Amino acid sequence: MDDTLAARSLASVWHPCTQMKRHEADPPVAIARAEGPWLYGTNGRRYLDGISSWWVNLFGHGHPHIRAALTDQIARLDHVMLAGFTHAPVVELSERLAALTGLGHAFYGSDGAAATEIALKMSAHCWRNQGRPEKCRFVGLAGGYHGETVGALAVTDIGLFREAYAPLVRLGATVPSPDARGALPGEDAAAVERRAAGALEAWLAEHHATTAALILEPLVQCASGMAMHGAGYLQQARALCDRYGVHLVVDEIATGFGRTGTMFAHQQAGIRPDFICLSKGLTGGTLPLSAVLTTDAVYAAFYDDDVARGFLHSHSYTGNPLACRAALATLELFEQTDALARNAQRAPLFHAAFAPLAAHPRVRHARHLGMVWAWDVEGSAPDFARRYHRHAMARGLLLRPIGRTLYALPPYVLDDDAIAHLGREALAALDATLAEETPGAAGSPERHLP
Fold first, then answer.
1. Which residues lie closer than 8 Å to 390 by C-beta, 6 or more apart?
2. 47: exposed, middle or buried (C-beta count within 10 Å: 0-12, 13-18, 19+)?
3. What is the pLDDT of residue 208?
4. Structure confidence by residue, pLDDT tens digits, 49-79
5. How far is CA 307 from CA 55, 299, 311, in A?
6. Spatial contact of 277 and 115, defined as CB atoms under 8 Å apart
């Protein structure tokens, strides 16, 4: 055990999406190792990874199949530049992804924000190559999150990020979200989707001539509090993009690889987008990798003798063999374990474990899709998320609310005892957090981070 690791980290590491001053009271938790759904701290305690380590882990930490694939690959080829070279893992992964999505010509990056940047640049450059350089603007959904690099921030509608970096960002437009929680009196979820689609239609009717693409998170807008909508909105969005000549980009960075019950969320709508952005679960939570897949028509728009008409984008580690091999092993696990069917079969166990939490008098909008559960907590404490996280960790759970939205997004490998532990202690942490509130206190929600 190294009890000084947290202190050394604060002295040398700038942690992501963190106000570092807060760590004076709550030091980072030092993790020594991980196995399955469990993280083991240097303090001798273990924590159930209830959010899959920022939504990336699918089959548990240290899975032997992925580990064996990486061990084999590093003995063969660790890395080679993908400009002018190729290798078996990147070819095989591209073929597998094309078979799964119906789109091909995968372009690789390092993380989700990189995938967003790639898709936006590719869309605008495609229109330019087709003689439509004016089509270079973008539109997204209210509350949408697509990453925190400068290009991705242009289509990320999270006020905390937009305000901090506004001078650097060429903001895209936003249209209303089909979030079912936004229902007006007398409306059901389908009516909310129709209203949101109507607003999108009105916007595209006026701005389609200068719009390259619509980007959205299909079925679940994760960083805006696990906002959920139905497949009907995706069908309407696809039809509108076709009518007005605008690309449809689906950000499956968080929703892909079984999170919503199907391999990819947009497949529940029976549509084919023009671009798919993938990352997070792509390598099962082992190595950073992202991919953007697109249509043959988009690819053809760049195919030319002129270098300037080629897609001008690269990363030093594009298509890294180790990351691609981890992704291949992850896709193999979906087949070997019949993961989608198994998740559907075990979902009732999660429902039962979470039933007391969903019935809590301070919980609103309990919702579920695939392997995502979410609840909004009615409360007065402005720092609910931070307080809840601390109480959950004290009970052996890694749960990290978004504002006042509590959610669970676990790995696919929890056994019965771990599921019961997750439900029981998530409820206990909620009661402990609410007990700290000052009666009658007022406060606005904490400005939240995903």
1. 26
2. buried
3. 98
4. 999 999 999 999 999 999 999 999 999 999 9
5. 38, 14, 8
6. yes
CA dihedral sign, ordered 267, 282, 20, 377: positive
Predicted confidence (pLDDT) per residue in 203-242, tens digit: 999 999 999 999 999 999 999 999 999 999 999 999 999 9
Q: Are 61 and 35 in contact, with CB atoms under 8 Å apart? A: yes
% of the chain surpassing 70 pLDDT: 96
Q: How far is CA 130 from CA 125, 208, 236, in A?
A: 9, 16, 26
What whole-number distance in Å separates Cα of residue 433 and Cα of residue 412? 28
* One-letter identity of residue 229: H
Cα gap 287→79, rounded to integer Å = 13
Euclidean distance between CA atoms 110 and 93, whole angstroms: 15
**Among the listed residues 335, 359, 346, 372, the one whose alpha carbon sits nearest the alpha carbon of residue 427:** 359
Q: Is the pLDDT of residue 285 over 70?
A: yes
Tell me the two tokens of residue 124.
């605008």
> CA–CA separation, 39 vs 396, rounded Å?
9
Q: How many CA atoms lie within 13 A of 18 on its CB side?
A: 14
Q: Which amino acid is at 68?
A: A
Under 8 Å between Cβ of 329 and 69: yes
- Rounded Cα gap, residues 243 and 273, in angstroms: 14
Distance, CA of 97 to CA of 383 (rounded, Å): 41
Token representation of residue 426: 């998530």
Structure tokens that stand for 213 in this block: 């693409």
Reported confidence tier of residue 437, pLDDT bands at 50, 70, 90: confident
**What's 134's DSSP letter?**
T
Q: For residues 420 and 327, give the distance between their C-alpha atoms in angstroms, rounded to a whole number.
A: 30
The stretches of 245-338 forming alpha helices (DSSP H) are: 296-300, 321-337
Q: Which amino acid is at 314?
A: S
* 426 phi, psi to nearest 5 deg: -65, -40
Q: How many Å from the N-terminal Cα to the C-terminal Cα in the chain?
A: 30
